TrEMBL record, chain A:
A GO CC annotation given for this chain: membrane
Protein name: Chlorophyll A-B binding protein
Organism: Cynara cardunculus var. scolymus
PANTHER family, A to Z: UPF0041 BRAIN PROTEIN 44-RELATED (PTHR14154)
Signal sequence residues: none
Membrane topology, record value: Multi-pass membrane protein
TrEMBL record, chain B:
GO cellular component, one term: chloroplast thylakoid membrane
EC number(s) given by UniProt: 1.3.1.83
Keywords: Chlorophyll biosynthesis, NADP, Oxidoreductase, Photosynthesis
Protein family: Belongs to the geranylgeranyl reductase family. ChlP subfamily.
Domain of life, per lineage: Eukaryota
Reaction equations catalysed: phytyl diphosphate + 3 NADP(+) = geranylgeranyl diphosphate + 3 NADPH + 3 H(+)
Enzyme class of the recorded protein, top EC level: oxidoreductase
NCBIfam families to which the protein is assigned, alphabetical: BchP-ChlP, ChlP, GG-red-SF
Protein name as it appears in the record: Geranylgeranyl diphosphate reductase, chloroplastic
Keyword Oxidoreductase found: yes
Lineage: Eukaryota, Viridiplantae, Streptophyta, Embryophyta, Tracheophyta
GO biological process, alphabetically ordered: chlorophyll biosynthetic process; photosynthesis
Pathway: Porphyrin-containing compound metabolism; chlorophyll biosynthesis; Cofactor biosynthesis; tocopherol biosynthesis
Domain FAD/NAD(P)-binding: start-end pairs: 58-157
């Protein structure tokens, strides 16, 4: 199949050229290395995912008639060619700047997990190859259209299960251990104020510190919140020293 | 006018005035460098600084930007003998050029120095989700875009009209006084209008100095004010075709993302007849050109066909200097480091701090009649910190929360779509007051913010897996 090329101009900002290729050619994504302003007929394809979504399109534009001239020696002449070779994010389910929920139907209801997966892929794609924002094709997707329970089910519940499981195991053995040492049974343990305090501390600790790094993170966060204040107060320390 | 002996209230007794004292009468001795105690009829705390004889208080304002111009005008109006030293009168400073609405009113700016009125802003997230903000603006509200050379010159001219002496010169150094009320000696190179010359060395004596000489302040260095962290703002002025310029008629854009800046934002601001496309960073300064390319890429479709007419960069202070005041030298504006976080706004705060410092000098010197002391200048710092600390702190928190990472930025743009957020943001930006909002709405906002952040971070964790 031959592919058609449209010239990138100010009046038709969006161009589409589709090509089917049997061979997957991976083209260099690094815009800083591209130096070719002439027209090219090229095709590229984005790696196919399990459900076959996403096909990348390579676009080449002839920027010669509208160069960006730098009056001073612009240290990066390659900058003009940055946008010359460009893969744009395209996906059949991505319609007019948002995910078309009708295409995510499974057994009559929307498959929110698939929506989340699709958005993850889109963001990953854009993180690796940022794209120009375009007024004719605005992106209006808002993650809040995915209901809260879908987020809970997918992200919160597995971790909650893990933590609760660990807590339960530790709790069982602690109760057994204390019982064997002091003879105080589980019900009596719960009645003791000291044990209740320990339990509270344990629950709070598990919520805040789940990994070793969390402890440092919390300390850093605490420093961060007061750092700016200290910078502003610095001029007043001066006065205090004098007095 | 030397000493004045006020008759005591008891009667018109011919008192040989020298040591007569009463709680109502006041007495002054001829000016000497020793302290004089003095009580007045007004309810004012006892002033102990000596009167200035034969002349008014002399103050030098180093730097003629918004801070210097505003300070010089207020000083001159207050009866203080003011000298403003500016090294480049026609300096077209690289700057975003945005002033809030309240500045127009507070500084009586004529509307013709405002090139454009921005009433819409577009926030663009790393994944190009674009949100328009500005729906909540009332018809008379706008963000003014000015050309710095026009604004600065206007403020300086007004200062000159009020009686300040404007000198074209470069401040070199300052000799601190050895005794308590002795003057400062300012050494500067006077250019006298001759371009390209090294200038004539001039020295003058002044009683107080206001350092308004910007981010690389020499006055700050001479008082050991300390350093601050600063961001580099890099900007290209691009002249784009008329139909593209139409889109930016009254709209400014903000691009956020790791590609554009790891700790700041990229922008497209409309100027008089072109746009300024730029970005900034604190932590990754060597990569600034890369960030600029990324910004241009993100705005590419909208600035297609544009020609770069100027490339400029400048430092932006991130926080105030450790010492903003030393004896009778005070720093204002960028020299003090009064640039907000998150938005990087500095013009209004420079002008306001210049004015506040000048006001405290005028008040402390009783319209130029007495010597000022450090305590008088500290009042300016006190007033400044009290008035604007909430604004600075809120913007700091916003920056820390929303400029952390791409998920945080996605959440930020999502939150901007909310009308309550827009109203609060614009109200606090345009009027520089952190207004307490509706508590219920605030709660809803907090819940939504946490929700957005949680969702965006969850997506990011998934992104790390593929």
């Amino acid at each position: 199949m031959s592919s058609s090329m449209a010239l990138f101009s100010s009046t038709t900002p969006h161009l589409s050229s589709f090509s089917s290729s049997s061979a997957k050619t991976h083209l260099p994504n690094n815009p800083f290395l591209s130096f070719k302003p002439q027209r090219h007929l090229l095709s590229g394809s984005f790696r196919a995912t399990e459900n076959g979504s996403g096909a990348g399109i390579l676009v080449e534009e002839n920027k010669a008639p509208e160069p960006k001239e730098a009056s001073t020696g612009n240290g990066a002449p390659v900058a003009d060619d940055v946008a010359d070779s460009l893969l744009k994010f395209e996906d059949p389910k991505w319609v007019s700047g948002t995910w078309d929920l009708k295409q995510f139907q499974k057994d009559g209801t929307t498959d929110w997990d698939a929506v989340i997966d699709a958005e993850v892929k889109r963001r990953k794609w854009l993180q690796d190859t940022p794209e120009s924002s375009n007024n004719d094709f605005p992106v209006v997707f808002d993650t809040s259209i995915i209901p809260w329970w879908a987020w809970m089910k997918r992200f919160h519940l597995p971790e909650a299960e893990l933590l609760n499981g660990r807590a339960a195991m530790v709790g069982f053995f602690m109760a057994y251990f204390v019982d064997s040492l002091t003879g105080v049974g589980l019900v009596d343990q719960m009645g003791n104020f000291f044990c209740k305090t320990l339990l509270f501390v344990a629950v709070a600790g598990v919520l805040l510190i789940r990994k070793n790094e969390d402890y440092d993170n919390l300390k850093k966060l605490l420093d961060e919140t007061t750092f700016y204040d200290k910078q502003w107060q610095a001029t007043w320390q001066d006065e205090k020293k004098k007095e | 006018m030397a000493s004045v002996a006020l008759k005591s209230f008891v009667g018109l007794r011919q008192s040989s005035t020298e040591n007569h004292r009463s709680s109502i009468a006041s007495l002054t001795k001829p000016l000497s460098s020793t302290q004089i105690h003095y009580r007045r009829l007004n309810v004012v705390a006892g002033k102990s600084s000596p009167k200035v004889t034969g002349r008014n208080l002399r103050v030098a304002v180093i730097g003629g930007g918004p801070a210097g111009g505003a300070a010089a005008e207020t000083l001159a109006k207050g009866g203080v003998e003011t000298i403003l030293i500016e090294r480049k009168m026609d300096n077209a400073k690289p700057c975003g050029g945005a002033i809030p609405l309240c500045m127009v009113g507070e500084f009586d700016l004529p509307l013709d120095i405002i090139d454009r009125r921005v009433t819409k802003m577009k926030m663009i997230s790393p994944s190009n989700v674009a949100v328009d903000i500005g729906r909540t603006l009332k018809p008379h509200e706008y963000i003014g875009m000015v050309r710095r050379e026009i604004l600065d010159a206007y403020l300086r001219d007004r200062a000159s009209a009020a009686g300040a002496t404007i000198i074209n010169g470069l401040f070199v150094k300052m000799d601190k006084p050895t005794e308590k009320y002795k003057p400062y000696v300012i050494h500067y190179n006077s250019y006298d209008g001759k371009a390209g010359s090294a200038g004539k060395k001039v020295s003058i004596e002044v009683d107080a100095v206001i350092g308004a000489d910007g981010a690389n302040s020499r006055v700050a260095k001479s008082i050991d004010a300390g350093d601050y962290e600063y961001a580099i703002a890099f900007q290209e002025r691009i002249k784009i075709p008329a139909d593209k310029m139409q889109y930016y008629e009254d709209l400014a854009e903000m691009y956020v993302g790791d590609d554009v800046s790891p700790d700041f934002y990229g922008w497209v601001f409309p100027k008089c007849d072109h746009v300024a496309v730029g970005t900034g960073t604190v932590t990754h300064k060597p990569d600034i050109k890369k960030f600029q390319l990324a910004t241009r890429l993100r705005a590419r479709d909208k600035i297609l066909g544009g020609k770069i007419i100027r490339v400029e960069a400048h430092p932006i202070p991130e926080h105030p200097r450790p010492r903003r005041l030393a004896e009778r030298v005070a720093l204002v504006g960028d020299a003090a480091g009064y640039v907000t976080k998150c938005s990087g706004e500095g013009i209004y705060f420079a002008a306001k701090s210049g004015r506040m410092c000048a006001e405290s000098i005028v008040e402390g010197s009783e319209n130029g009649k007495r010597m000022v002391e450090e305590a008088d200048l500290r009042k300016y710092l006190e007033k400044w910190d009290k008035t604007y600390w909430p604004t600075y702190k809120v913007l700091d928190v916003l920056q820390k929360v929303f400029y952390r990472s791409n998920p945080a930025r996605e959440a930020f743009v999502e939150m901007c779509a909310d009308e309550y957020v827009q109203k609060m943001t614009f109200d606090s930006y345009l009027y520089k007051k952190v207004a307490p909002g509706n508590p219920l709405e605030d709660l809803k906002l907090a819940v939504n913010t946490i929700g957005s952040l949680v969702r965006a971070n969850a997506l990011r964790k998934e992104m790390a897996k593929i």
